[in-house]
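_Full entry_
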Amino acid sequence: MHLIELTPFELGLAALLILALAGLSLALSLGLSKTLLIAAVRTTLQLWLVGLVLKTLFAYASPLWIGLLAAFMLLVAGREVMARQQRRFRGGWGYGVGALALTVPSLSIILLTLLVILRPEPWYAPQYAIPLLGMLIGNSMTGAAIGLDRLTQTAWRQRAAIEARLMLGQRWDVAMSDIRRESARAGLIPIINSMAAAGVVSLPGMMTGQILAGAPPTEAVRYQILIMFLIAANTGFAALGGVWFGSRRLFDERERLRLDRLKS
């Protein structure tokens, strides 16, 4: 079985569904028609550009170029984490906390996967490195953003209770323990739900893609289990790291609560 080739005509038929949805949004005065169409155009252009970049990378595989693309992906993901927070940190920390929380676990896990688990030849083979890193970052980005958003908003609302705990002699980490725990839990819930529903409610993307490409279902399942475990671990580490870095940034060296470091 071979992969069915798609022509512009088939893609155009799928695009008609987006146009129909935009028309329905306009008729119902939802105010989302323009946003939906722009998102569809961005999706097309971005994916087409990525396809051209990956085609070049596959033809001229080099650790340098793959590393530069990975760095670019992490930089963009760090900005997305920052953009999804209502009360972000001021200055460079607004970007740095999320970017650091994503970079450390993502690079560690992708290197572990390539060097120890999959062991492709060469170890930096772009057909493995780039898609795997993209899946890791894309899912971890949501977990880190949710965790940081919950942390900063809850700290803002409960500042009186936190300061009261500090006045009673508690350390900053003890005064923030409940908030940190709930924030980390919020960041982990989406990936836990995805794992619980995998194979029962939905067929995950990588498994579906491999089956459509003609891979045996059992082989596709093994790869999908591996990916789900990697994504869950990466998301968890990113959410926990982001919450820890963020909560530490909320206090100065004298353990005073510094909500002035957040944008109001």
